[in-house]
From TrEMBL, chains A, B:
Required cofactor(s): Mn(2+); Mg(2+)
Organism: Desulfonatronospira thiodismutans ASO3-1
Protein name (record): 3-isopropylmalate dehydrogenase
Known EC number: 1.1.1.85
Record flagged with keyword Metal-binding: yes
Length: 349, 349
């Protein structure tokens, strides 16, 4: 029987609760589809940092490389200054494990409340491919004359051919497997002439290798408008790290919110990390009220990545059958508890 | 009688048509409220560029400084490479005339169709103050090893204390005049530690001078979610140039789209420029189908800037009375022509 070693980082706040339900559902999928998951838990997060000062020891990062996948809950603690854990755990893992694609399906499932009038599941079904290791996230920049009235603060977006090429390659390959085969580059070529000069050049060059893929380009400001007004235009959208951060959160709202939005941090040739994209939501922690669907759908992305396509599909179908039974997708207003949602989905597998 | 010298740049596509209606309404306001507008037209835009190669001659820029205000239609021509006119006219004017605040009211008027379920005019009524002269728009950056597989493209966000301070100052002053007196900084402090390190530091320091203003902070990704889910949380939002570009377009969609969204490029101590924020929409040019409301509301912002507060209010009220008579706010589907909308609003003044 195929066995997968999976590192679990439950993390902070609601992380442990939603991860537990995800594991429950993944276990059920393993039984049904014939594979075993060998879980190894890591207590990274705010509690450990507050107790020991440790954020993400090098040795742990080294160990993580030995897994088939990483399954993450949420990072963020009310007693820790914002930025420290996100940068020290989430961003550092993305960089050191070179998780160069952030994959975010934006899919409105039947039965899920959408904030947009006149838009339904047939209109909202696309995937964002976000570059995940460079751009404005490079951490490059600095202060000059800090704290004076002559201060200058510079923040640099660093884009490399290598980084842009592989991200676009992933997006073209993905688009080529889809029914509509359409790939949209989201950028700001009229202002960010250097950063998106490179992106657009490589995009148009690579498009010649994929004659079956229809290409399109939209500025990031217009993209946000279309995501609300005409989301049906999109199939696969590729963009840089910062714009990807913005449009994937906007997309999450259109698919029912953070309770249901999952993402993968992917290194196609290494270990990848899967997560519900919402935060740790401390005010709901430990109350069995948080929505585990995002974590469960992160499990679906993980199964796909592990090569268990059938199990991934079975999991998604099980989720779709339970979603209409939930009152809303918001914590505390689901009409079901966290564990009840997990039980129901596991039972549907 | 008070007289104002106004430079008009009708520009490309639908620009001339919507500007004409704006002038019509502003003339009517002048008659009613007792001021005169002395218009001087400039033929900047795609046609002039294609004929003469001239984009924005220094001498014209010099002349523009002598006006009380600039009234702009739209810039962008199908036969001109994207970027050239936007950068050469719009961005250059912002930079050279130091129009350091981009002011964008996001207001849903009664009778206007909103794409969001469960949100009405009482929920969507806030103003974005966008920094308009620095950040990622500085044009700073470059290519290394261009065209090779070792290429690096760098784009820099340059933020100065001077630039950030005056923009925040404007936002605090504005917030202090509003009923709710709430100011939200939209940034990305957890990743753009330099750029928004400066912004946040100055923001919190300045807040001490405005004890009556309630302050708040949201990351840009979360801001986009709240703008859809809970726009009623916002009163005045202040942000940098790039994020401002993104969130104001998103906001425009929630207030009924580009047909109705107006903006001001403001130098509080100099000449300011007012514009409908939509593009030149070449496919509707010359057909009397474009929506002039955005241009007319840009006129309202201009009157406010000129110190004609009462006339500005009268103009806004006239617009509100006509909006419910329009079928939609989209070009070609208003149930009225461009000039009919202008006539109706002028008549209501
Ligand atoms: C927590 C934060 C650093 C992170 C990001 O900006 O990438 C998050 O918003 C995300 O999208 O995963
Ligand atoms: C045309 C373009 C350069 C401009 C910008 O990015 O600022 C526009 O989108 C705007 O918001 O006024």
């Amino acid at each position: 029987m195929q066995e997968y070693k999976v590192a679990v980082i439950p993390g902070d706040g609601i992380g442990p609760e939603v991860v537990r339900e995800g594991q429950k559902v993944l276990e059920a999928a393993g039984k049904k589809y014939g594979f075993r998951l060998d879980w190894h838990s890591y207590d990274l997060g705010g509690e450990r940092y507050l107790k020991t000062g440790e954020i993400l020891p090098d040795s742990v990062l080294e160990e993580l490389k030995g897994f088939h996948a990483i399954y993450l809950g949420a990072i963020g603690h009310p007693d820790v200054k914002p930025g420290i854990l996100e940068q020290g755990i989430l961003l550092r893992t993305r960089f050191v494990l070179d998780l160069y694609v952030n994959l975010r399906p934006i899919k409105l499932y039947p039965g899920v409340e959408c904030p947009l009038k006149e838009k339904g599941p047939e209109d909202i079904d696309y995937i964002v491919v976000r570059e995940n290791t460079e751009g404005l996230y490079a951490g490059s920049g600095g202060f000059l004359r800090q704290g004076t009235e002559h201060e200058v603060a510079v923040q640099e977006s660093v884009n490399t051919y290598m980084g842009v090429e592989r991200c676009l390659r992933y997006a073209f390959e993905l688009a080529a497997t889809r029914k509509r085969r359409k790939l949209t580059l989201c950028g700001k070529t009229n202002v960010l002439t250097y950063a998106f000069g490179l992106w657009e050049r490589v995009f148009r060059e690579m498009a010649k290798e994929y004659p079956s893929v229809e290409i399109d380009y939209t500025h990031v400001d217009a993209t946000c408008m279309w995501m609300i007004k005409s989301p049906e235009w999109f199939d696969v959208v590729v963009t840089d790290n910062m714009f990807g951060d913005i449009i994937t959160d906007l997309g999450a709202i259109t698919q029912g919110g953070l309770g249901i939005a999952a993402g993968g941090n992917i290194n196609p040739r290494g270990v990848s990390m899967f997560e519900p994209i919402g935060g740790s939501a401390p005010k709901y922690a430990g109350q069995n009220k948080a929505n585990p669907v995002a974590a469960i759908l992160a499990g679906q992305l993980m199964l796909t990545d592990l090569g268990q396509a059938q199990a991934a599909q079975g999991l998604e179908e099980a989720v779709s059958r339970v979603l209409p039974r939930m009152q809303t997708q918001s914590a505390g207003r689901m009409g079901m508890s966290t564990s009840e949602v997990g039980d129901a989905i596991a039972a549907e597998i």
